[in-house]
Amino acid sequence: MHFHKDLSYVGWEEVKRRQLERVPLVDEWIKLVNMKKGETVLDIGTGPGVFTLQYANFVGEDGKIYALDQSKEALDFFLKEMGEKKNNIMPICRNAETSLDNVGNVDIVMITDVLHHADSPIDL
Hints:
This protein is an alpha/beta fold.
């Protein structure tokens, strides 16, 4: 079995399906990091945004989610799937390994299902 860092060969619909399978874990992750209403969260590796939406719903309108992904296609897919824009989600197309400029102060960083795709996970 060969591992592909780049999931573009499976398509964002398939990546979304895989994320949906893990939605039951999101509440555990939120508790584990002690996420609170109104906090600002940096979600590195948003992909199709399944987890991002869960985080955004949890922090509420007073919170903020920076949805960061290096793939413009992933963010475009996410925004299309999201439909109506959520005011507490700020999409950012950038490689987190090289630059986090223009990302404001955050309370929590979520790096879910991402490290194995990074060229240099330590840089995240």
